[in-house]
Write a structure and sequence with these properties.
It is a single chain. The chain is of the alpha+beta class. It contains 7 helices and 14 strands. The strands form 2 sheets. It has a 10-stranded antiparallel sheet with strand order 3-4-7-9-8-13-14-12-11-10, sandwiched between helices. Helix 1 crosses helix 4 and helix 4 packs across helix 7. The longest helix is centred in the C-terminal third of the chain and has 22 residues. The chain is globular. The structure holds zinc ion (ZN) (3 copies). The site of one zinc ion (ZN) has 4 residues, from strand 14.
Length: 337
C-alpha cells in the first residue's frame, strides 16, 4: 500500500510506499535488462492482464495482434481499489493511496527508441493516451492523470528497455500543474487571453527559439529553459485538454515526435530523457473550481533531456543554471531536422 502525504509548508504531495522494505541503491547498481523481454508480442502472459489495447479485428485480449497495449504496472505506486479518504495526522495531511499506475507498451516489436517506431506508430501511442485519460476521468476519485515517459537509467527508467511510457492517475492535482493553472488563470483575468496562445504567437514572430512548426504544432525551446535542450510542444489550436485532441492532430503529433526525438538522439548521442504531458485536471469532481480552464489552459508536452546533473544550489533555490541558451538549441536541432 501507499499513502499520499501533503507537505503543509509548500502544498506538495509525496507518494510514500509505506510497506516497501527496499532501499534504493541506484547510485551503486548496474541494472541489467531481463533476459526475456516481457513486452514483446507473444510474451503477453508475462505481464498482468491488459486494461486496453489497440489491436487487429478478431484477435483476443492478452494474445498477439495488438499495436499498442496497456497493462497495470507490476509494482504500482498507487492502487485502484478503495475509497478516497482524506485525513489529518497531527498537523499533517494525507489521502489514501488511491490511483492507477499503467504501462503503455508502445510497440509489439522489440524497439527501444521512440523515433525508431515511426510516425504512424507514435500516433497510435498518443491515441492510446487519449483513450486512457478519457476513461480514467470518468472516475471522480482521480483528480489528475499524468502521462510520462522515462528513457534511460539516468531518467529513472526501469530495466526494461522496450519502448514504453506510463501514466499515474492521482487523487490530488500536482503542485506543478496547480502553479501553471494559477499563472494561466491570473494572466487570463488580466488580459482575457490564453497565456500559452500569446507565448506561441510571440515565439512564431520572433522565430529564434522555434525548432519546428507543422500544420498543427509548434516545438519551442522555451525562453527560460531550466535544462539544456528542454523543449515544449504546443498545439496551435487553443485546446485546454488532451481529451479533445482531433484525429488530425494525433496523426500530426506522431510525425512531430518522430522528427524531434531523432534530432535529439543525433545531437546528444542517445540522451536519457523524460517527457510529460500537461493536460487539464479532471473537471468532473470540481465543477466551478476552475471555471475558466477551457479558456485559459492549453495542453502541451514537455521534453526534458537529462544531460546535466542538478546541483545543490539548483535543488535549494529552484534557480536552474542552464549552460545552453535555448536560441542555440533551436539552431542545433534545426540542423538535424
Ligand atoms: Zn521487447
Ligand atoms: Zn491557448
Ligand atoms: Zn507544463
Amino acid at each position: 500500500m501507499s499513502e499520499v502525504r501533503r507537505d503543509i509548508l509548500t502544498d506538495t504531495w509525496v507518494i510514500v510506499l509505506t510497506e516497501s522494505t527496499e532501499i534504493p541503491m541506484d547510485h551503486r547498481t548496474l541494472r541489467k535488462p531481463p533476459a526475456v523481454c516481457p513486452f514483446d508480442a507473444g510474451h503477453e502472459s508475462q505481464t498482468p492482464p491488459e486494461i486496453f489495447a489497440l489491436r487487429s479485428d478478431h484477435t483476443l485480449p492478452n494474445q498477439p495482434g495488438w499495436q499498442v497495449r496497456v497493462v497495470p504496472n507490476k509494482n504500482p505506486v498507487l492502487r485502484i481499489e478503495g475509497k478516497l479518504n482524506r485525513e489529518g495526522v497531527g498537523i499533517h495531511d494525507k489521502v489514501s493511496g488511491i490511483g492507477a499506475n499503467e504501462v503503455i507498451i508502445e510497440t509489439p516489436e522489440h524497439i527501444t527508441n521512440l523515433h525508431s517506431l515511426g510516425a504512424q506508430q507514435i500516433s497510435l501511442v498518443f491515441k492510446t493516451y487519449q483513450a486512457r485519460i478519457l476513461d480514467l476521468y470518468q472516475d471522480k476519485r482521480f483528480r489528475y492523470v499524468l502521462v510520462f515517459k522515462d528513457y534511460g537509467a539516468l531518467a529513472g527508467a526501469s530495466t526494461i528497455e522496450h519502448s514504453h511510457s506510463q501514466l499515474i492517475a492521482l487523487p490530488a492535482t500536482p503542485q506543478q500543474i496547480k502553479s501553471e493553472l494559477a499563472g494561466a488563470k491570473a494572466y487570463f483575468e488580466y488580459k482575457e487571453r490564453c497565456i500559452f496562445c500569446d507565448i506561441i504567437a510571440n515565439e512564431l514572430e520572433d522565430q529564434s527559439r522555434v525548432v519546428l512548426e507543422t500544420s498543427h504544432f509548434v516545438v519551442l525551446a522555451p525562453y527560460a529553459s531550466r535544462f539544456p535542450f528542454e523543449l515544449l510542444i504546443f498545439p496551435k489550436r487553443h485546446t485546454y485538454s488532451f481529451e479533445i485532441v482531433t484525429p488530425d492532430e494525433i496523426a500530426n503529433i506522431g510525425e512531430v515526435l518522430q522528427r524531434i526525438m531523432k534530432a535529439l538522439y543525433d545531437t546528444l548521442s542517445d540522451p536519457p530523457y523524460n517527457y510529460i504531458l500537461h493536460t487539464s485536471p479532471n473537471r468532473l469532481p470540481q465543477r466551478g473550481y476552475w471555471l475558466t480552464i477551457q479558456d485559459d489552459f492549453h495542453w502541451h508536452l514537455e521534453i526534458i533531456p537529462r544531460v546535466k546533473r542538478t546541483d545543490g544550489f539548483e535543488w535549494g533555490s529552484g534557480f536552474f543554471i542552464n549552460p545552453v541558451p535555448p536560441e542555440t538549441v533551436a539552431l542545433k536541432l534545426k540542423e538535424k531536422l
